[in-house]
Fold each of these.
Amino acid sequence: MKTIVASDHAGFKLKARILTFLSENKIEGVDLGPDGDISVDYPDFAVKVAEQVSAGERTRGILICGTGIGMSITANKFNGVRAALCHNEATAEASRRHNDANILVLGGRVLTEDMALKIVDIWLNTPFDGGRHQGRIDKIQSIEKTQ
Ligand code: RB5
């Protein structure tokens, strides 16, 4: 599965480290920008990732801004996107097992690089549990249909 990655200026350094981590682990990573750490607007980059994840089941995304909050708010506007802002191993695991999150959101200014890479590793390698959790996701999708 392809993993598409984008950030704003506050997440730029961590984005580069995550792309290296994906490459080291033989995971196809696609960089959707930005190309440097000059100031940009996080919604512009959240949209690039969220549009593709919303459109295709075989694509997952990683978004990084300063806190992760702006990227989360933006990405979750898109149908079918379940963007999860994760701070530690437990939230990374639960976001996959319970929420079937298809975009991982990280805060470049609030996480150590070590913790961020642990989160990425867990998030990419943890399956969705299904069962009772699927019914809850179906309820989220039914809300989307009424919007
Ligand atoms: C940029 O200064 C900062 O606002 C952004 O990276 C993010 O934290 C927004 O939620």
Note: The chain has one domain: 2-146.
Amino acid sequence: MRYETVIGLEVHTELATKSKIFCGCATKFGGAPNTQVCPVCSGMPGTLPVLNRAVVDCAIRAGLALNCEITRNNKFDRKNYFYPDLPKAYQVSQLYAPICTDGWLEVAAEDGGTKRVSIREIHMEEDAGKLVHDDWEDASLADYNRCGTALLEIVTQPDFRAASEVVDYIEKLKAILEYTGVSDCKMQEGSLRADINLSVRPVGAKELGTRTEMKNINSLRAIARAIEAETARQIELIEDGGRVVQETRRWDDSAGESCSMRAKEDAQDYRYFPEPDLPPIEITDAQIAEIRASLPELPQAKRRRYMEELGLPEYDTGILTGSVYLMRLFEETCAACGDPKEAANWIMGEVLGQLKLTQTLPENMIFAPASLGKLILLLRGNVINRGTAKKVFQKVFAENVDPEQYVKEHNLALMTDGGAIRSALEGVLAANEKSVNEYRGGKAQAFQYLIGQGMRALRGQAPAQEVTRLLKELLDD
Ligand code: ADP
Ligand code: MG
Ligand code: ZN
């Protein structure tokens, strides 16, 4: 029998707001444990939450960018569960009236075309803390810094049919959240995490199969591997006459397999009820209109414009718009040098090359974006040649040197002094009498050899045209 994989995603993204959702504590990543906590976010009895309005604005931004309806009358609900990293023993979330509903995002379909993935809802909630398992002391320690950080949970319909569609969705979603400033989406810091709900069914079947859920997978590679492995596991189970059990599974990426973590809870297990400590939030049409007007040009629109107005190849535009950091570099480089084609070529070639070579993520590039534009201008103005430009770029990339200053300090500019070039070439001719005679005797290859010697004597720093011209002149004297 042939099977079809069916996947729905729940993506949690930490908002880029400076403070937490219900208190004034900082959200900055990487602080010493338990230094960013207060009585509210550490769940002391008797404290009261106060909603950070910036969270609502962020949620609306995300919703509009993802083609959602915005709910005018919002409420929060309590989701009750005990876990050591959740000191209140409940999480404030939205069950009954999520802030955004019925959106969509277009992704590359497995069969080659594009398809719309439906976004069922986006809701606001608070994050839990983190447990640090200390094997040395045989203990688990609780760090509450992350407790109360604002999250959006973005839930799709079960519309994916392959790992490639899921990966494309997450990449596009990530770009949109970055462009709109909703989240920094650093997957390795856990600010974008995906839960994968997956079932299989015979091709052509109408009913969905029983699904499992794999939680908090935080790299695209791991997500793709987890999907392949879970699909195979479910098919094998069914083929062997077994049944898939609805459960939460833990994906172990180093082992390449998942194991059962716990039976899946239903909504009633959480004893949801309306959060009594927070008033409902009204969202007005004016507020929505204002946020809509402030949205930046989104990746999809930008991509189309790069193709149509700048004439860039489709593949390149996908890369250039796929990361907000590459997009900004591209636009600032264009602004500095006025040459989009050359800017795109440099980013597709040298920048991607250096990122790969040094295993750097675009968000961690350190050089001033205008530097690449300056470098292109030096090349175009014939101040340096392409080989030198590439070498200088490595320094720009690694150490953020200023290209103009670097070229000057290291004496890398092409020679513009015709007299100096001429005297260097005279030296070359004197040292290569044999080739000179061959050339004069009618042997054309000898000329190429002499050019090579000339370029070498000039350390590649003389314009090739000028070397050719002067050499001819000297030989034909
Ligand atoms: P829960 O409330 O238990 O998390 P939901 O109904 O909200 O369950 O669905 C969570 C996610 O699981 C959604 O993305 C949804 O599309 C997906 N999903 C639901 N049923 C299935 C199924 N049978 N196969 C694959 N994905 C599913
Ligand atoms: Mg869920
Ligand atoms: Zn706090």
Note: The CA atoms of residues 265 and 442 lie 89 Å apart.
